[in-house]
Amino acid sequence: MSNLDAVLNDLIVANRILAKEEVVDAYGHVSIRHPDNPKRFFIARSLAPDLVERDDIVELGLDGEPVRAESRPLYLERFIHAAIFEARPDVHAVVHAHAEDILPFGVADATPLRPVIHSGSFIGAHVPVWDIAEKFGDTDLLVRNMDHGRDLAHCLADNNVALMRGHGFASAARSLIEVVRMSVYLPRNARALQRAIQLGGSIKYLSEGEIAARAGGYRPHAPETWRAWEYWATKAGCRHLVGEPHAHEPKPKR
Ligand SMILES: [Zn+2]
Predict the structure, then answer these.
(1) Residues of the chain with pLDDT under 70
(2) Stated pTM of the model
(3) CA of 76 to the centre of ligand 1 (A)
(4) What is the pLDDT of residue 252?
(5) Which of 4, 46, 77, 215 could pair covalently with 73 via S-S, beta carbons 3.0-4.6 A apart?
(6) What is the pLDDT of residue 221?
(7) Looking at 21, 59, 70, 77, which residue is catalytic?
(8) Cβ(136)–Cβ(148) under 8 Å?
(9) Are 33 and 40 in contact (CB under 8 A)?
(10) pLDDT score, position 1
(11) From CA 222, how far away is CA 218, in angstroms rounded?
(12) What angle, rounded to 10 degrees, do the helices at 176-199 and 3-20 form?
Protein backbone atom coordinates (compact mmCIF):
# COMPACT_ATOMS: atom_id res chain seq x y z
CA MET A 1 0.00 0.00 0.00
CA SER A 2 1.48 3.34 -1.02
CA ASN A 3 1.69 6.30 1.28
CA LEU A 4 -1.17 7.94 -0.61
CA ASP A 5 -3.32 4.81 -0.34
CA ALA A 6 -2.82 4.84 3.41
CA VAL A 7 -3.70 8.55 3.62
CA LEU A 8 -6.90 8.07 1.63
CA ASN A 9 -7.85 5.03 3.71
CA ASP A 10 -7.37 7.12 6.82
CA LEU A 11 -9.63 9.79 5.38
CA ILE A 12 -12.37 7.21 4.77
CA VAL A 13 -11.95 5.96 8.34
CA ALA A 14 -12.14 9.54 9.64
CA ASN A 15 -15.40 10.12 7.75
CA ARG A 16 -16.96 6.97 9.19
CA ILE A 17 -15.78 7.67 12.75
CA LEU A 18 -17.14 11.21 12.74
CA ALA A 19 -20.48 9.88 11.51
CA LYS A 20 -20.66 7.04 14.03
CA GLU A 21 -19.73 9.36 16.89
CA GLU A 22 -22.48 11.76 15.72
CA VAL A 23 -20.14 14.67 15.14
CA VAL A 24 -21.45 14.84 11.55
CA ASP A 25 -24.73 13.61 10.06
CA ALA A 26 -25.78 14.13 6.45
CA TYR A 27 -23.71 17.30 6.62
CA GLY A 28 -20.22 18.13 7.80
CA HIS A 29 -16.89 17.07 6.32
CA VAL A 30 -13.27 16.21 7.00
CA SER A 31 -10.20 16.82 4.86
CA ILE A 32 -6.48 16.01 4.83
CA ARG A 33 -3.66 17.90 3.16
CA HIS A 34 -1.87 16.09 0.32
CA PRO A 35 1.22 14.50 1.91
CA ASP A 36 3.44 15.42 -1.06
CA ASN A 37 1.90 18.70 -2.22
CA PRO A 38 0.99 21.19 0.51
CA LYS A 39 -1.03 23.25 -1.98
CA ARG A 40 -3.61 20.50 -2.37
CA PHE A 41 -5.93 18.56 -0.12
CA PHE A 42 -8.34 15.62 -0.20
CA ILE A 43 -12.01 15.71 0.76
CA ALA A 44 -15.10 13.75 -0.27
CA ARG A 45 -17.46 14.96 -3.00
CA SER A 46 -20.82 16.19 -1.69
CA LEU A 47 -21.94 13.11 0.23
CA ALA A 48 -22.87 12.16 3.80
CA PRO A 49 -19.59 11.19 5.54
CA ASP A 50 -20.87 7.74 6.56
CA LEU A 51 -21.28 6.83 2.88
CA VAL A 52 -17.84 7.91 1.69
CA GLU A 53 -15.83 5.36 -0.33
CA ARG A 54 -12.47 5.68 -2.06
CA ASP A 55 -13.98 6.83 -5.40
CA ASP A 56 -15.79 9.66 -3.64
CA ILE A 57 -12.60 11.42 -2.59
CA VAL A 58 -11.56 14.41 -4.70
CA GLU A 59 -8.38 16.47 -4.75
CA LEU A 60 -8.77 20.23 -4.42
CA GLY A 61 -6.42 23.18 -4.59
CA LEU A 62 -6.12 25.88 -1.96
CA ASP A 63 -8.68 27.89 -3.96
CA GLY A 64 -11.25 25.20 -3.10
CA GLU A 65 -11.56 24.06 -6.72
CA PRO A 66 -10.89 20.53 -8.04
CA VAL A 67 -7.52 19.97 -9.66
CA ARG A 68 -9.06 17.58 -12.22
CA ALA A 69 -12.30 17.82 -14.20
CA GLU A 70 -15.09 16.87 -11.82
CA SER A 71 -18.75 16.67 -12.78
CA ARG A 72 -20.08 15.55 -9.40
CA PRO A 73 -21.31 18.18 -6.94
CA LEU A 74 -18.79 19.24 -4.31
CA TYR A 75 -19.39 20.40 -0.75
CA LEU A 76 -20.60 24.02 -0.84
CA GLU A 77 -18.47 24.74 2.23
CA ARG A 78 -15.21 23.24 0.99
CA PHE A 79 -13.77 26.77 1.24
CA ILE A 80 -13.54 26.30 5.02
CA HIS A 81 -10.85 23.69 4.42
CA ALA A 82 -9.12 25.55 1.58
CA ALA A 83 -8.83 28.77 3.56
CA ILE A 84 -7.55 27.09 6.73
CA PHE A 85 -4.94 25.07 4.79
CA GLU A 86 -3.94 28.31 3.04
CA ALA A 87 -3.57 30.27 6.27
CA ARG A 88 -2.03 27.56 8.44
CA PRO A 89 0.94 25.64 6.99
CA ASP A 90 1.12 23.71 10.28
CA VAL A 91 -2.38 22.27 9.76
CA HIS A 92 -2.71 18.92 7.98
CA ALA A 93 -6.35 18.06 8.67
CA VAL A 94 -9.60 20.01 9.09
CA VAL A 95 -13.13 19.13 10.24
CA HIS A 96 -16.30 21.16 9.82
CA ALA A 97 -19.48 20.00 11.53
CA HIS A 98 -22.77 21.19 12.99
CA ALA A 99 -22.69 19.11 16.22
CA GLU A 100 -25.70 20.25 18.21
CA ASP A 101 -24.06 20.33 21.65
CA ILE A 102 -21.65 23.09 20.71
CA LEU A 103 -24.23 25.37 19.10
CA PRO A 104 -25.44 27.16 22.27
CA PHE A 105 -21.89 28.37 22.94
CA GLY A 106 -21.80 30.10 19.56
CA VAL A 107 -24.94 32.14 20.21
CA ALA A 108 -24.87 32.85 23.98
CA ASP A 109 -21.95 34.90 25.24
CA ALA A 110 -22.47 34.38 28.99
CA THR A 111 -20.26 31.28 29.22
CA PRO A 112 -17.35 30.71 26.83
CA LEU A 113 -16.65 27.20 25.56
CA ARG A 114 -13.33 26.15 27.07
CA PRO A 115 -11.91 22.84 28.30
CA VAL A 116 -13.53 21.56 31.49
CA ILE A 117 -12.66 17.84 31.11
CA HIS A 118 -9.25 16.30 30.50
CA SER A 119 -10.19 14.87 27.12
CA GLY A 120 -11.43 18.31 26.08
CA SER A 121 -8.05 19.89 26.69
CA PHE A 122 -7.01 19.61 23.05
CA ILE A 123 -9.52 22.23 21.92
CA GLY A 124 -7.11 24.71 23.52
CA ALA A 125 -7.45 27.49 26.07
CA HIS A 126 -9.28 29.85 23.72
CA VAL A 127 -12.10 28.94 21.32
CA PRO A 128 -13.03 32.01 19.26
CA VAL A 129 -16.54 32.51 17.89
CA TRP A 130 -16.76 33.54 14.25
CA ASP A 131 -19.82 35.50 13.21
CA ILE A 132 -20.22 35.63 9.43
CA ALA A 133 -22.56 38.62 9.80
CA GLU A 134 -19.82 40.86 11.16
CA LYS A 135 -18.23 41.20 7.77
CA PHE A 136 -20.84 39.89 5.35
CA GLY A 137 -24.18 41.00 6.82
CA ASP A 138 -27.20 38.82 6.13
CA THR A 139 -26.18 35.56 4.46
CA ASP A 140 -27.45 31.97 4.55
CA LEU A 141 -24.60 31.42 7.09
CA LEU A 142 -22.76 29.03 4.76
CA VAL A 143 -19.09 29.44 3.90
CA ARG A 144 -19.66 29.67 0.15
CA ASN A 145 -16.46 31.24 -1.14
CA MET A 146 -12.86 32.02 -0.28
CA ASP A 147 -13.74 35.43 1.16
CA HIS A 148 -15.96 33.74 3.73
CA GLY A 149 -13.36 31.02 4.34
CA ARG A 150 -10.51 33.48 4.81
CA ASP A 151 -12.52 35.50 7.29
CA LEU A 152 -13.18 32.32 9.27
CA ALA A 153 -9.49 31.31 9.09
CA HIS A 154 -8.55 34.80 10.30
CA CYS A 155 -10.83 34.36 13.33
CA LEU A 156 -9.44 30.86 13.97
CA ALA A 157 -5.92 32.37 13.91
CA ASP A 158 -3.54 30.03 15.79
CA ASN A 159 -6.30 28.29 17.75
CA ASN A 160 -7.43 24.69 17.26
CA VAL A 161 -11.18 25.30 17.03
CA ALA A 162 -13.46 28.15 16.03
CA LEU A 163 -17.18 28.10 16.70
CA MET A 164 -19.34 29.43 13.89
CA ARG A 165 -22.24 31.45 15.23
CA GLY A 166 -25.59 29.74 14.66
CA HIS A 167 -23.96 27.10 12.47
CA GLY A 168 -21.26 24.79 13.85
CA PHE A 169 -17.50 24.63 14.23
CA ALA A 170 -14.25 24.28 12.33
CA SER A 171 -11.32 22.42 13.89
CA ALA A 172 -7.75 22.11 12.66
CA ALA A 173 -4.80 19.95 13.67
CA ARG A 174 -1.38 18.77 12.54
CA SER A 175 -2.73 15.27 11.83
CA LEU A 176 -5.98 13.52 10.94
CA ILE A 177 -6.05 11.43 14.10
CA GLU A 178 -5.78 14.59 16.20
CA VAL A 179 -8.49 16.54 14.39
CA VAL A 180 -10.86 13.56 14.66
CA ARG A 181 -10.12 13.11 18.34
CA MET A 182 -10.60 16.81 19.02
CA SER A 183 -13.85 16.90 17.05
CA VAL A 184 -15.22 13.90 18.97
CA TYR A 185 -14.35 15.38 22.36
CA LEU A 186 -15.42 18.95 21.56
CA PRO A 187 -19.18 18.17 21.84
CA ARG A 188 -18.54 16.01 24.92
CA ASN A 189 -16.72 18.89 26.59
CA ALA A 190 -19.63 21.16 25.64
CA ARG A 191 -22.13 18.74 27.18
CA ALA A 192 -20.15 18.49 30.43
CA LEU A 193 -19.91 22.28 30.59
CA GLN A 194 -23.59 22.77 29.92
CA ARG A 195 -24.51 20.30 32.67
CA ALA A 196 -22.12 22.01 35.06
CA ILE A 197 -23.79 25.34 34.33
CA GLN A 198 -27.15 23.76 35.19
CA LEU A 199 -25.78 22.64 38.56
CA GLY A 200 -25.10 26.28 39.37
CA GLY A 201 -22.16 28.07 40.94
CA SER A 202 -18.96 29.01 39.20
CA ILE A 203 -17.29 26.89 36.55
CA LYS A 204 -13.81 25.47 37.11
CA TYR A 205 -12.13 25.33 33.73
CA LEU A 206 -8.87 23.49 33.10
CA SER A 207 -6.04 25.90 33.82
CA GLU A 208 -3.67 27.02 31.08
CA GLY A 209 -0.97 24.97 32.82
CA GLU A 210 -3.16 21.84 32.74
CA ILE A 211 -3.97 22.38 29.06
CA ALA A 212 -0.27 22.83 28.29
CA ALA A 213 0.65 19.72 30.30
CA ARG A 214 -1.89 17.62 28.37
CA ALA A 215 -0.71 18.96 25.00
CA GLY A 216 2.94 18.47 25.95
CA GLY A 217 2.43 14.81 26.79
CA TYR A 218 0.45 14.02 23.65
CA ARG A 219 1.81 12.05 20.71
CA PRO A 220 -0.41 11.42 17.67
CA HIS A 221 0.56 7.75 17.29
CA ALA A 222 1.23 6.78 20.86
CA PRO A 223 -0.41 3.47 21.87
CA GLU A 224 -3.07 5.27 23.93
CA THR A 225 -4.04 7.44 20.95
CA TRP A 226 -4.00 4.53 18.52
CA ARG A 227 -6.22 2.60 20.92
CA ALA A 228 -8.99 5.18 20.43
CA TRP A 229 -8.56 5.25 16.63
CA GLU A 230 -8.78 1.44 16.41
CA TYR A 231 -11.78 1.39 18.75
CA TRP A 232 -13.67 4.09 16.89
CA ALA A 233 -12.87 2.52 13.50
CA THR A 234 -14.07 -0.89 14.66
CA LYS A 235 -17.26 0.62 16.06
CA ALA A 236 -17.78 2.41 12.75
CA GLY A 237 -17.39 -0.88 10.82
CA CYS A 238 -14.13 -0.04 9.08
CA ARG A 239 -11.45 -1.79 11.14
CA HIS A 240 -10.27 -3.46 7.91
CA LEU A 241 -9.15 -0.05 6.59
CA VAL A 242 -6.93 0.64 9.59
CA GLY A 243 -3.28 -0.28 9.13
CA GLU A 244 -0.51 -0.10 11.64
CA PRO A 245 0.33 3.08 13.55
CA HIS A 246 2.03 4.74 10.63
CA ALA A 247 4.82 6.99 9.79
CA HIS A 248 3.10 9.00 7.06
CA GLU A 249 1.67 11.63 9.36
CA PRO A 250 3.92 14.36 10.71
CA LYS A 251 6.31 13.09 13.32
CA PRO A 252 5.72 14.45 16.80
CA LYS A 253 8.11 17.22 17.75
CA ARG A 254 9.20 15.56 20.94
ZN1 LIG B 1 -21.73 24.03 7.71
Answers:
(1) 1-2, 246-254
(2) 0.94
(3) 9
(4) 46
(5) 46
(6) 77
(7) 77
(8) yes
(9) yes
(10) 61
(11) 8
(12) 20
